[in-house]
Write a structure and sequence with these properties.
With 192 residues, the protein is mainly alpha-helical. It has helices at 3-6, 41-59, 73-102, 105-128, 135-140, 143-163, 168-191; strands at 20-22, 25-28. It contains seven helices and two strands.
């Protein structure tokens, strides 16, 4: 049995399996740019924009243009703004509330300085373990957890300083070691 016995054989186009429409245009070509793991999204987007301009202004015919319809740069900028805004508001609130409740400005400043220090340590650990700084990992850094531990330690240090007349250094070491085990275990339970 030959194919010609069953059907008419001729050269033609492959059957169309899908179609992309954009802005009510019947036919369009769609492409997605995928960033490699560990890449910097802002740098990649800048290079993609350069390539699009190069293609539109010299390589493609005049009636064909590449037009991006979704650019993640706005999302990245909003996320960075939100994180920095939250950081500043968090530090300010910690300063005000701790000063009102503890009545000690140096303790409030110490606890407020723990926030950027903890973030720096988190970013360094993310870098060494190869964790990308994306929306999920930035959202996983919990300001409340960081502040809670610092507040408990600072409050216990102040309580011990008021109660003891020993040297300040030894009192701080004793007060910190007194709550250290509970803080480590509570943090591990919250993370798990």
């Amino acid at each position: 049995v030959k194919v010609s016995d069953l059907a008419e054989v001729r050269i033609g186009n492959a059957p169309r399996l899908g179609m992309v429409q954009f802005n009510r245009e019947d036919d369009a070509v769609e492409a997605i740019v995928v960033m490699r793991r560990g890449g910097n999204a802002t740098e990649v987007l800048a290079r993609v924009r350069e390539k699009i301009n190069e293609l539109n202004n010299g390589i493609l015919p005049k009636n064909i243009k590449l037009v991006p319809f979704y650019d993640r740069q706005n999302l990245i900028d909003m996320t960075v703004h939100t994180v920095s805004h939250t950081l500043l508001i968090g530090i300010t609130l910690v300063l005000i509330i701790l000063y009102l409740f503890l009545g000690n400005l140096s303790s409030a400043i110490t606890v407020a300085l723990v926030i950027p220090l903890a973030l720096c340590v988190s970013f360094i650990a993310m870098y060494f373990f190869g964790v990308p700084a994306n929306l999920i990992s930035l959202g996983a850094i919990d300001f409340g957890l960081i502040v809670e531990a610092a507040v408990i330690v600072a409050e216990n240090i102040m309580r011990q300083i008021e109660k003891n007349s020993n040297g300040a250094t030894q009192t701080i070491i004793d007060a910190t070691s007194e709550v250290m085990r509970a803080m480590v275990f509570s943090t591990c339970i919250i993370i798990a």
